[in-house]
Design a protein that fits this description.
two-stranded antiparallel sheet, NTP_transferase_dom, UTP--glucose-1-phosphate uridylyltransferase, GalU_uridylyltTrfase_bac/arc, Spore Coat Polysaccharide Biosynthesis Protein SpsA, Chain A, alpha/beta, 36% helix
């Protein structure tokens, strides 16, 4: 196991997709830059909410994976100060927030995914930057809202620090929706708080899930699915690299979930049901609902 006892300091956010399901809006605006409104009424691009979620968990450095032509867009938002004319038009509160964005930008590195060949491929683009440390991984089109004073990402890091192995955030999903999701099963540990995983399965059909993915305590057609945040050891890169080298694709792309299952088999993996909600901004109706629910908390 590689440096599993190293504290998690880094986070990866893949943001190199086109956003096909949100076309034609994504012809004008990157999916990750579409606006949401937070609980304080502040309008912000989705990517900022994800970066802030990472920082809330003590993350010191964030890598955003982008397409070659998109560096300038993200660079402009996170690293380029407003010109003086626009800055002085802001309220004092927003002037302070503008400086906060500049400070945040110092923690952000932009990494290039030359060719978009799947989520797993995007993650692999950060291998050298991660440099053999554990890391947090986020979806680039999901935002998160904790039900407690502890952020969702912080909850996951706390569990990772306890178990010292790759840990995925989980949520309960009804059976009719799991074909969209990574799904897991396993055995409860520590007074039913932590799940020792025995299988990670990408987008199963309901019949398969009923036979193989039931989890004790969940009645009816309810299953544990991946919430959209992962705390991973760098072992994941070994399996991603092997898949890419051997051109092992699923639906034409290099997937992450297959490699998660390989990591689970190699060194074990845990799951934790997050006390919070995950909001999808990657599909029209889901984005519409996120716009409402994220604001309302």
């Amino acid at each position: 196991m590689k440096n599993s006892n190293h504290p998690i300091r880094k986070a990866i956010i893949p943001a190199a997709g086109f956003g096909t399901r949100l076309f034609p809006a994504t012809k004008a605006v990157k999916k990750e830059l579409l606006p949401i409104i937070d609980g304080n009424g502040r309008v912000k691009p989705t990517i900022l909410a994800i970066v802030e979620e990472a920082i809330s968990a003590g993350i010191e450095e964030v890598a955003i994976i982008v397409q070659p032509g998109d560096c300038q867009i993200f660079e402009s938002f996170f690293k380029t100060p407003l010109n003086a004319i626009h800055y002085h038009k802001l309220s004092p509160e927003n002037q302070a927030y503008s400086q906060y964005l500049q400070d945040l930008g110092e923690k952000i590195t932009l990494l290039i995914q030359e060719v978009q060949e799947g989520y797993g491929h995007a993650v692999f683009c950060a291998k050298d930057w991660v440099n053999d440390e554990p890391f947090l991984l986020f979806l680039g089109d999901h935002v998160y809202l904790s039900d407690t004073d502890v952020s969702c990402a912080s909850q996951l890091v706390e569990i990772y620090n306890r178990v010292g192995k790759s840990t995925v955030a989980l949520t309960v999903t009804p059976g009719e929706k799991i074909y969209h999701c990574g799904c897991v099963t396993g055995n409860w540990q520590n007074n039913d708080e932590i799940l020792s995983l025995t299988q990670v399965c990408e987008k199963p059909d309901l019949n398969y899930a009923r036979q193989h993915l039931k989890v004790e305590g969940l009645t009816g057609d309810r299953f544990l699915t991946i919430f959209g945040i992962y705390a991973l050891t760098p072992t994941i890169f070994d399996f991603l690299e092997a898949n890419i080298r051997n051109n092992l694709r699923e639906k034409g792309e290099f997937q992450l979930t297959t490699c998660l299952e390989q990591v689970r088999q190699a060194e074990g993996m845990y799951g934790y049901q997050i006390k919070g909600k995950c909001f999808d901004t990657g599909m029209p109706d889901a984005y519409y609902q996120t716009f409402i629910d994220f604001r309302n908390g």
